[in-house]
Structure formats: C-alpha cells, structure tokens
Amino acid sequence: MTDKKVWFITGASSGFGKAFAEYAIGQGYNVVVTARRVDKLDAIRALAPAQVEAIPMDVTDNAAIAAATEQAIRRFNRIDVLINNAGYGIVGAVEETPEAELRAQMETNFFGAVAVTKALLPLFRQQRSGAIVNISSLGGQLSFAGFSAYSASKFALEGMSEALAGELAPFGIKVLIVEPGQFRTDLAGDSMKHMPEMDAYKDTVGKTREFAKNMGGTQEGDPLKAAAAIDKTLQAPTTPLRLQLGKDAIDAIRQHSETLLNDMAAWEQAGVATRIA
Questions:
Q1: Which of 74, 174, 201, 274 is the residue whose CA sits 20 to 30 A from 227?
Q2: pLDDT higher than 70, residue 139
Q3: Sheet holding 52-56, edge to edge
C-alpha cells in the first residue's frame, strides 16, 4: 500500500507512453506501465524498481486487461490516473484501406481504450476520485486526405470521452481528451502503417503519405513537456475537457473551429427553415 499518486499507462514501451512514465517517475509517482511485450518495459522498470510495476497487456485482449488491472491494484492499492495511450496510425485513402485494417485500427485505438477504461471504472467509482486521460490527436478534431482510418478512431474516442465526462462527474472523476500535434514519438515510424497505393489518389493521399514518411525526427514537440502539461491540467481546480498540445495543433483546431462557425452562420437560415411550419 502507498499514498503516492499512481499512474496507469498503456502503450508505455516507446513514444508518449515511455515519456509519460519517465515524467511520472521523476515526480515521485508510482507507475504501472503496460505493453504487449513486457521486455520492452525493462528500461523503464530499471529507472525506479520500487515505483514501477511492468505488466504485459494487449489492449485488444480483455482477459489480459483484467489480469493487468488486478495486478496493478494488488501492487499499489489504487489508481489515480489512467492514460489510454496505446495506439497506432494508418495512412491510406478510404478506398485503399481494407476493411480488416480499418477494423483493426478501431479495435486498438478505440475499443482498446474503452476496454481498459471500463476495467478501472469500478475502482475509480469506489475511490470517488481519479482521472482518465485519453490520448487523441489534432486528428481527433479534423482530418486530412489519407488519415481517414486514424481520424475515425480518434473521433470515436473523443465522442465516447465527452459522454463519459458527464457520466463520471458526479463521482469526482475527471476525463481529459489530449489532442497533440507533432511530437518526437515513433508514430511516423513503426507505429504508422501504410496501405497499398492507388494511382488515383497520388495527388491527394500521396502528399499525406510523403509527409508521414518524412516527419520522423523533425517534430517540434517534446513528449516530456507534454506529460508535464497533462499533469498540470489534471491538478487544476477546473480541468478542461480537451487539451491541445503544440502550436500546430492549437492553430489547426482553431482554424477548423472558425471554419465550422463560419459555415454554420452562412447556412443557418437553410438549417432553421427545415422546421415544421
């Protein structure tokens, strides 16, 4: 048992997840790190064995989720922050993306996060405290040619999260949707799948494909600073539902929101005119 804050992080073997774990350890928190291969968590566990519980867990395996959450609670007796970070990206036009790939994307990025959340909700309700942090993307608010599958999974995650926030508020449980822009993670590398190319989409998806292939190592965002921003937001008396990280995310989402409002204003009369006379 311990009174230290406990973070439970999925997809912690690299990228954001690894940075979140390193940050939490540095703050003196206890940390549960999970990944499909537990050997990839050895370096994190070695940083502070007394603070870290490393558990193998695939977010698409309900039995593994149940076992992992039970092990985490046995070790630390409580969970304060769940960070649903496990996920990957797909680049490809809708027509280029096989249904099986789209379903697999949804299974990990959306259904996986839902499953882990549901596994911990009884504990959070019992505690009458806690925070659920769902790592979305600026692609959870808007999309580009070639990112349809990825954005679909993040749009779904955000819709679920918004409803969840209302459901859990009476229990003192926070829900935070994080919308990062470009950060120095491996999303552009091993965590990005490229679908077979069709010549018909060379001029649209082709640009996105090249961007995705070349952005590795060029991103301005520091994952450790993202972790600090998330922690600061969770500790605020009033935590927002959404947190945009990176100037690129802030600028893109602001522009998208302004376009939405402008279009709504331009077509408001057509929309209002649909009421029964």
A1: 74
A2: yes
A3: 52-56, 30-35, 6-9, 81-84, 130-135, 173-180, 242-245
Provide the CATH number for the domain around residue 39. 3.40.50.720
Q: Find, among 176, 21, 192, 1, the residue nearest to 91 by Cα.
A: 192
User: Is a pLDDT exceeding 50 seen at residue 1?
Assistant: no
Catalytic-labelled residue, pool 5, 18, 154, 174: 154
> How many domains does the structure of the chain reveal?
1
Q: Of the listed 13, 136, 137, 153, which one is catalytic?
A: 136
DSSP count for the chain of H helices, then E strands: 10, 9
**Catalytic status, residue 137:** no
- Residue 212's identity, in one-letter code, is A
Whether 136 is a known active-site residue: answer yes
Could you give the angle at the alpha carbon of 50 between the alpha carbons of 185 and 176, nearest 5°? 45
Reading phi first (left if > 0) and then psi (alpha if -120 to 50, else beta), residue 219 is in beta
| Phi and psi at residue 137, to the nearest 5° | -175, 165
Predicted confidence band at 2 (pLDDT cuts at 50, 70, 90)?
very low
- Structural domain including 208 reads 6-246
Residue 145 has what DSSP assignment? T
Task: Convert the pLDDT of each residue in 250-275 to its tens digit.
Answer: 999 999 999 999 999 999 999 999 99
Q: Does residue 154 carry a catalytic annotation?
A: yes
| Percent of residues, the chain, with pLDDT higher than 70 | 95
* Residue 261 within a domain: no
Is residue 176 within 8 Å of 243, Cβ to Cβ? yes
Per residue in 164-202, pLDDT tens? 999 999 999 999 999 999 886 666 566 789 999 999 999
Q: Is residue 172 in some structural domain?
A: yes
